[in-house]
Write a structure and sequence with these properties.
There is one protein chain. By secondary structure, the chain is an alpha+beta fold. Helices cover 49% and strands 18% of the residues. The protein has helices spanning 2-23, 38-43; strands at 27-30, 35-37, 48-50. The protein has a 3-stranded antiparallel sheet with strand order 2-1-3. The radius of gyration is 12 Å and the shape is globular.
Length: 57
């Protein structure tokens, strides 16, 4: 049962990131290789590489 919850969370995260990219919202790749919305990375004290507009990471 926990695996289904984890898979749902992963799928929701992917949809949120895809939406952010499609809307042109800032998305970064952190030093650990995670792709996050810029606000989320800033909230966690992480900096990252900006994904250019028009590019899907």
């Amino acid at each position: 049962m926990d695996q289904n919850i984890d898979m749902d969370a992963v799928a929701a995260r992917r949809r949120a990131l895809a939406e952010a990219l499609q809307k042109g919202e800032p998305v970064v790749v952190t030093a650990s290789g995670e792709v996050e919305k810029k606000e989320e990375a800033d909230d966690q004290g992480m900096s990252g590489i900006m994904v250019p507009n028009g590019k899907l990471a």
